[in-house]
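note to self: dont lose this again. the chain is below, predicted strucutre after it. 334 aa total, dont forget to put it in the shared folder this time
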Amino acid sequence: MKKILYICGSKNQTTMMHKISEHLSKYDNYFTNFYGDGIIKYAAENDYLNFTILGNNFKESTFNYLRKNNLQIDPRGGNNDYDLIFTCSDLIIPNNLKNKKVILVQEGMTDPENFMYYMAKYFKFPRYLASTSTTGLSDAYTYFCVASEGYNKLFLKKGIRPEKLLVTGIPNFDNLQTLLNNNFPHKDFVLVATSDARETLKYENRKKFIKEALKIAGKQQLIFKLHPNENFRRATKEINELAPEALVYTNGSIDEMIANCTTLITKYSTVVYVGIVLNKEVYSYFDLETLKSLQPIQNNGESAGNIAKVAEAVLTKLEQTEFYFNEWALNNGY
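---
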């Protein structure tokens, strides 16, 4: 029986991998946390990278999810020789992935291109220094499954080889209308989705951001949903000082909160697409027209199955995979 390894990370990445694996149950599926080698491995194991998906906090969360769902675990993919590997990030390519068949799955929004993006692209600086703006630039994969035709065009502009790009849609963001039926107790409010910029060593003027949210909300109820990787104590204190009437949530489904709000305020977060698809008033540091052109295709939750078909093609060495998916996208209006 052929073996597949799924490299997880954040909750979004882990649940994406799980959904894809459910369509490939005839294979021997194994899962691991996100990992690296050498100095990256040393730093992660010694708690220097806990602000990233390489950190021990994410590792523990991933393994808890895998155990809860009775999934086979192979830490660092070291116990088997795999016929295919799935990952949601190619910012780091572990040594045991090299010369393997790899399918890269877009996790969500990519960061804006900055100085480090160009240093990574043209001067071979480590891709992770530019964060997700360099997604896809490794070329260390067989196919790259992306969220929409808009993202297909974006990745083409970055120089990614067209024969490797497949518009399949991405799990977790391909059937957002179902979120409208939920049990979140509040309705018709202004929702602020905060970021973990400071925790990932980026600059953020949080006080200014809170004041902007207050101005947008006016007399409407203001609710803050803190990023899972954020320093909850610090963030809650800041909000309470400037917006004492606001509600602060540290857990719960942000997607359901977005479904019930009237207005969504965020910076550089994939959740902005939930607001756009559900026709909410959206504030983002990205240009809204650009975001609308990039929004993930809505295919009634078929993305995981589409990605599984790519895996089947790779495992069985079928030809014309690119043609098949381009034709599929065209026939379905994407």
